[in-house]
Amino acid sequence: MAMNGPELPENVVVSRLDELANWCRKNSLWPMPFATACCGIELMATGASKHDLARFGAEVFRFSPRQCDLMIVAGRVVMKMLPVLQRIWLQMSEPKWCISMGACASTGGVFDTYAVVQGIDRFIPVDMYVPGCPPRPEQLIQAIIDLQDKIQREGTITGREFDTAGRQARKRALVEIAAPLSVDASRNPVLQREIAAEAGSLVGR
Amino acid sequence: MAATMTHATRREEPGQPPSVVDVVDALNGRFVGLASSVFRGQTRVVVPAGTLLPVMRLLKERGFDLLVDISCVDYLEYREPPMGMAECAGRRYGLVYLLASTVTNQRLTIRVFVDDPVADDERWPTVPSMVPLWQGADWLEREVWDLFGIRFEGHPDLRRLVMPEEFTAHPLRKDYPLQGRGERHNFPIITRENS
Q1: Which of A174, B84, B163, B165 has a CA positioned 20 to 30 A from the CA of residue A18?
Q2: ipTM of the complex
C-alpha cells in the first residue's frame, strides 16, 4: 500500500544482513600468523603496543587455524613448507582471507632460487598483497584496512562470495595456471613450459 | 739487571690460535703424499682420499676433538687448480674438514679431492665417514650428501637434510641451475572453489 512508504527491493533484508555480517567480520579478523622469516618480526611489531593491530579488531593472534579467519603469510615460503601452508589453509574454515605480506610471499622476493616458491598466490588464493622487504607496520595495517573494505564491499553472510569464480576477482597467476589441478607436472602445460624455460636458461649460469 | 724475556719456541700473536707446525710435522712423519700449505695464518693439509681415515684418526688422538665443519667446493668451472693446492689434479670436488682442538686451541683444515666415478655402477663419489670419530659429523655429512651428492661410507643414516626427501638433484653442484628444474612449483593449486 502506498501508505507503507516506497517499495523496497526484494533482497533488502538479505543485503542488510550481509552488511551486518560484513561489519562484524571485518572488525574482528583473527589473524593466523604464518610467519616464516623476517616479515614475521614486522608482524610481531605490528601486533605490539606501538603499532597496535588490536585497534582494528585483530586482537587475537591464534596459532590454531581452526580458530582464525585471516592467514597472514609473512616471509618466504620454501618448497618444503608449501604443503604445510596448504594444509593450514585447508584447515581454516570459511569465511577466510589471506594476506601475502612482504616481497617473498608475494613473488619470491630477492630469492629466485631452486627452493623458494615464487609467490604463494600460485598455490593459495590471496586477497591482499603487501609490498616491502619488510613492509613497515603501517603498511600492514593499511593492508588490513583495505581488506576490511574489501570484506565490507564483497562479503555475504553465507559466504556465497567464495562459491563462484565470477564473484572472486581472478588473480593473474591463478588465471594462467589454474585450469589443470593436477599434481602430475607432466600433464600441466604451463609448468612444462616453465621447466623447459628454466632448463634452457641453464647455459647462462 | 734487565730481566730476560724467555721466548717460547713458537711466538704467538695475540688473538691468533697457536701454531700447528708440530701437528703437520707429525703427519708428514707418518704418512706420505700429504701436501701442506699456509694461507693467511691458516694451515691446510691436502690428503689423498685413500689415507683420509688414518690421518683423521691420528689427528683425533693428537687432541683435535672438535670437528667444526665439513664442507665442499665444486671445481667444475675452475680453469686452474685452486690457489696453492695443485695436488687436486683436476678432481671436481674438494671436501673441507675444519678441525679444532678445544684444549690447545689449534685449528687445522684438511682438504680431500674426489672426482665423479667413471665406473658405470657407481653414481656418486665415496669418502669414508667421520661419524665413528666425531659424532658431530652425522648431520654435516648428511648436508654434504644432500647438496653435493658425495656419499659417506659407514654413515649410519645418510639421507637428505635440508632439501625435501623426494628431491632428486644435488643443488649446490655447479651444473644445477640456480632457479632449479621446476621442482619448486610442482605442487597442487588450491583455488577458492576447492578450499
Answers
A1: A174
A2: 0.79
**For each of chain B's 195 residues, which pLDDT tens digit applies?**
444 444 344 455 677 788 888 889 888 889 988 888 888 888 999 999 889 999 999 999 999 999 999 999 998 888 777 777 777 777 899 999 999 999 988 999 999 999 988 877 788 999 999 999 999 999 999 999 999 999 999 999 999 999 999 899 999 999 999 998 888 888 888 887 676
Q: How far apart are the first and last CA of chain A?
A: 79
Those residues of chain B whose CB sits closer than 8 Å to some CB in chain A are: 163-164, 171, 175-195
The C-alpha cell at A172 is 593473474
Which grid coordinates belong to B49?
A: 682420499
Q: Does residue B14 have a cis peptide bond before it, meaning omega lies within 30 degrees of 0?
A: no
Cell matching residue A181? 589441478
CA closest to B165 among chain A residues: A80
Residues of A (134-163) whose Cβ lies below 8 Å from B: 162-163
Query: Does residue B43 lie in a domain region?
Result: yes
The tally of domains found in chain B comes to 1
Measure A188 CA to nearest chain B CA, in Å: 9
Q: How far is A201 from chain B (nearest CA, A)?
A: 8
CATH 3.40.50.12280, applies to A11-169? yes
